[in-house]
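Q: Can I see a sequence and its folded structure?
A: Here is a first one.
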Amino acid sequence: MFRRLIGISLVSIVAAGCATSSNFFKLRQHEDVVLSNGLKVILVPDASLPYFSMNLLVKAGAVNDPEAKDGLASLVANLLEKGTEKRSATELATALEQIGASFSAS
């Protein structure tokens, strides 16, 4: 009898936890856009602050390395932090800093 009471109590607690309000977590309005180059963009406007933020997530890493080119994604990510043919790492960092941006690869 005691086990039955505990079982019913646990089921009741779990059911009560599942019956929370559907407004607990509400996604903001957003717009999905696909650019001509295939880049998927999700726009989430929020006019509550005069602030702009952007995150760019790129599918990278060993799982996306081409066949027979292990480590390519990691190599490219690390080299981007070293600069390019036209701009040194310092010039890239300065240009990004001037617009309040940053770059990192991991």
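Q: Show me another, different protein.
A: A second, unrelated one:
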Amino acid sequence: MIATFKKIGKTTGFTSGDKFRSEYTILAENSTKCVFTFSYNYVKWQIDERTFIMKPVNGFLTIRKYLIVENGFTVGEFLNPKWGSLYHSLVYNNKYFTFKRIYDSFWERFFGSKQMHCQLQDDEENIYYFCTVGKPFDKREVAANYFELEGQIECSEENLIAAFLGLFILEMELVFGKA
């Protein structure tokens, strides 16, 4: 199954911190629609009638862990990598996924590219993300997370929600400059 997505930026009105909010609109072949909203202090997915919210786990040694909550119940978690690691983890629906960026060349790894290829994989299936980086939301901002992004996701129908949730990791890659 192929799902297409487009990311646009919205101004939040704040002069520091969350000046912009990323909004993804995703549409799958089976007419499943997802709206994903990301800012540093707020993460939410609206998938058909289901709503998922991201909550950071605060505490000693848990600074890089987030819970995925649906209707007050924890349904999954994200584990950000240790410093220097290139992999992120997603646990959803009792499956353990690993997210990684795929580089086509040495030059792309160290000098960047307008094209991004990423993969979210578990033992049974790979979910692929193909993206093109567009223009910035604001010409004064140069950070990668302030750019439009569009592309497609290839996955099976049973892992469609995990694929949508994987966009959070893609956005984190942009925020922390690994993309």
